[in-house]
Amino acid sequence: MIPAITLLFPILIPIVGGVLILFLHFKKDCHREVFSETVVVLTSAAVWLCILFCRSHPITIYSFTSGFSITFSMDGLGCLFAGMISLMWPLVMLYAFSYMKESARKNSFFAFYVMTYGAANGIAFAADMITMYVFYEMLTLVTIPLVCHYQNHESMYAGRKYAAYTIGGAALAFFAVVLTTLQSGGGTFLYGGDLRPGFDPSIMRIAFVFGFFGFGAKAALFPLYSWLPTASVAPTPVTALLHAVAVVNAGVFAVMRMTWYVFGTELMRGSREQYFCLMVAVFSLLFGAVMALRERHFKRRLAFSTMSNLSYMLLGVMLMTPDGFAGGMAHMLFHGVIKMSLFLCAGAFMHKTGCNYIYEINGVGKKMPVTFGCYTLGALSLTGIPLFCGFISKWKLLEAGAGEGSVFGLIGDAALIASAFLCAMYTLTIAVRAFFTASEKDHYANAVRDEADRMMLLPILVFTAINVAFGIWPQGIMSLIGRIAGGG
Question: What is the rounded end-to-end Cα distance, in angstroms, of the chain?
């Protein structure tokens, strides 16, 4: 075993590396790319070193008053989140090199892109609410320049909106952070909750609702969702990794921590506050699906789909049963793999054709068969078709809703089924447009085949393979998730 101080490496390596990118003068793009990829690969190696060999004892780095400190530790949930992003980041970095080749301000882009990795790892390895909150806010600050990268009117507006929603949401969550820190052993994460005796249950339940909506702002929970489709103006590597996985999943992860490791389900289960949050998640997943069906912009459609699927995860968490928790974790992992593939396919299409809208896809499958073949497999998985990983997590959520024991669980199941139907409509119609279009509407009938380049296709193919592999052989990962959900 290695000492707990090793947990600092996955956090400091990308933060220091990103700062260096800002100040180093690279004579060639390839030098910057080698440096950035090396930092990211070293960070991922450090993550897995910690997951496999690090002791789980907490380590306090800095304490500024009683109960308020920066402390790191690791457990099953943190390892799952960190392991997920550690496998995705190096691959999407390769995609970014090709996508950003003609872009200006590359030093700034890759510097903040790398630093974001460190902030996400800080959230994963946080041992208490204060530490998680500090890195949660840091994640917002280092991603604002990425959303604003193009620095045109649309990008600057998106950046201001993103900042307002996510920082405002964090202000709501701060109420829950302070109360739980004062009413527990410093807000330390302990499966089942860590609140001390003598607290006022009604006040703490209200604090939970504040935390649910505050952290839920990053998860695009209704009504705090509109920043997510607006932020789709950012470069696709940003929308793929940050707004389909790291940033939005950080919101879901924080709600998981707050529910299962601080408040505890015994305090909340059966309360009006639980059912209120549960119904908000149900409404959000249906609302996001309907908005995705209405949307005509390719990436914004996927952004609304992300809103819907994030609420799948929150629904599982708000059921407050181990099965629901396991379903939420499984969908966090599997949706990340699926949506990564879909966003990268969308970005490849937009990058190669200069087109942005759904009607402009007609016939492009003949021009980009690998890209849209992978997109089709991702769409089938997101819909919940068997033999793909999306089916596994959705089935687990349906089982959890049926087994929850109240009418609210059945309402959640009905919403999941309705959302799956809408998902088929807003994802598979794109695949149909790409491959099966009437000749008079085929925009690419006379176009030369122009597939995305290898650096873009490699991550798409890898995520597609993972999607299929988890769908056919889910036993190992679902067993791990089941142990985490049971407190193991």
Answer: 19
Closest to 423 (Cα-Cα) out of 415, 433, 412: 415
Rg of the chain over all Cα atoms, to the nearest angstrom: 21
Q: Is residue 323 within 8 Å of residue 478, measured between CB atoms? A: no
Q: Compute the distance between CA of residue 55 and CA of residue 77 in angstroms, rounded to an integer.
A: 15
Q: Count CA atoms closer than 13 A to 377's CA, side-chain side.
A: 24
* Structure-block tokens of residue 429: 């119609």
DSSP reduced 3-state for 301: helix
- Residue 233 corresponds to which tokens in the numbers above? 């103006």
Report the chain (488 residues): mean pLDDT per 10 consecutive residues: 81 95 88 94 95 82 77 91 93 91 88 95 93 94 92 92 92 90 79 80 92 93 92 87 82 95 90 94 96 94 94 96 96 94 93 89 90 96 94 95 90 95 95 84 72 90 96 95 89
Integer Cα distance of 243 and 215 in angstroms: 15
Q: Which H, E and C letters describe 210-256, residue by residue?
A: HHHHHHHCCCCCCCCCCHHHHHHHCCHHHHHHHHHHHHHHHHHHHHH
The first and second tokens of residue 78, run together, are: 């943190």
d(CA 240, CA 232) in angstroms, rounded, equals: 9
Residues 71 and 62 sit within 8 Å (Cβ to Cβ): no
For 98, other C-beta atoms within 10 Å of its C-beta total 20
3-state secondary structure of 297: strand
Which tokens go with 386? 């068997």
Coil, helix or strand for 378? helix
Measured in degrees and rounded to the nearest 5, phi and psi for residue 54 equal: -85, 145
Q: Pull the structure tokens for residue 166.
A: 């996510």
What distance in Å separates the CA atoms of residue 191 and residue 193, rounded to the nearest whole number?
A: 6
pLDDT digits 0-9 by tens, 251-274: 999 999 999 999 988 888 989 999
Choose among 385, 218, 202, 398: nearest CA to 315.
Answer: 398
Task: Name, in order, each residue with C-beta under 8 angstroms of 390's C-beta and a sequence gap of 6 or more.
Answer: 334, 335, 338, 380, 381, 382, 383, 384, 467, 471
180-201: pLDDT as tens digits: 888 776 678 989 887 877 778 8
Q: Is cis: bond before 223, omega within 30 of 0?
A: yes
Q: Which amino acid is at 306?
A: T
Burial of 53 (0-12, 13-18, 19+ CB in 10 A): exposed
How far out from the chain centre does Cα 132 lie?
A: 16
Q: Locate the domains of the chain by residue range.
A: 270-488
Contacts of 272 (CB under 8 A, 6+ apart): none
